[in-house]
Amino acid sequence: MAVVIAVLVVVVGVLVSIALHEVGHMVPAKLFGVRVSQYMVGFGPTLWSRTRGETEYGLKAIPAGGYVRLVGMYAPAPEGHRPRKGWFGEMTSAAREASAEEILPGQESRAFYRLSAPKKVVVMLGGPVMNLVIAFVLTLIALTAIGVQTPTTTVGTVPACVPTSSDGVCRAGDPAAPSSAAGLRAGDTVLSYGGTAVTSWDELADAIAHGGTDATTLVVERDGHDVTLDVTPAERKAQTTADDGTVTTTTVPYVGIEPTFAREHQSPATAASQTWDITTQTVGLVAQLPVKVVDVARATFGDEPRSADSVMSVVGVGRVAVDVAGADQASVIARVQAMLLLLASLNVALFVFNLIPLVPLDGGHVVGALYEGAKRTVARVRRLPRPGPADTARMMPVAYAMFGLLTVMGVLLIYADIVDPVRLT
Description:
Elements: H1 2-31, E1 36-52, E2 55-70, H2 86-102, H3 117-146, E3 148-157, H4 178-182, E4 189-193, E5 196-197, H5 201-209, E6 216-222, E7 225-231, E8 234-241, E9 247-254, E10 258-264, H6 268-287, H7 289-301, H8 314-325, H9 332-354, H10 362-381, H11 396-419
Antiparallel strand pairs: 1-2, 3-10, 4-5, 4-6, 6-7, 8-9
Main location: membrane
Protein name: Zinc metalloprotease
GO cellular component, one term: membrane
């Protein structure tokens, strides 16, 4: 049942994210007077639709995206323009003609191409920005409303020994843990260590790490009373791994305190910071997207293992959700939180990916609007005639090429996520 719910959460979450992305385009377009003839979630055959006012709202069979049809996306050919010959020229002319045919008589002023450059930017950025807002809201719920499991200064368990093996299991001959020898008990709350007051687990860990191995005092609250314990930290070897894979072994003080955990509600600023961190990481991932896709192909059709940070399709995201839902040790609230953060990451990916400055992605149309605005600004400064709208129909060959590449990439990732999925463990 948990697995079924996980799949439904991902499917519904993706559909809602897509639907709200398109709302982000549609609302400002309508506010600026553009006629929006269609609002569709999905592609392919229409499963359901209703017409309200001048807009048809519908749901299509393939939940791989969505669109709003903004009437008059492409401006007519510039005056004196000579049609290009060949396939590219025919493609550009067909796009202009289809755009012109959508404009109803007497509503020429409501065409998208007639908007000012800033308004075009607002309309085209509305979708990606909506995804970023969704990501922040989901992260806010996960971190602020639900909270993060945080170690506290209340003792959870007291180890019986100073383990000498890497697995941490006590064996015959292992020395007694300093905390156990000092009389520390589960449920005690540490107030100070070595004379330094502590109010968080990080402060306690830092005090132990810098306190050395000489005998010292440990003050705890037990049954409402302060109790002072004498403790002599032992030495234990610890290993740290650097970013380049270098492993360093050091000797550190060891007392033997394992904390309890409590959910700590984070501030909205923390949620904003985490959203920003995920966004910057996603930008780096998208910048390496061609390399990442090649790596997926090599892992899928070759002998190379698929990395844990591999790019995934929606199918892969669904499998991750299933893994999260099936985690035996996770509580229900922890699973809900993981789902929220997974959907937040997906929305960040939609935000960043759609800003790639190539049509048919939103970023390509933003670049066209910025180019148009720049031309008009230069003309105004130089007191030249005002240029017409940017001839974005000339980018149709690029749009078709991008559509083909995205289709191939999508099919490859879906296949890879079926036969060689990313494993969480």
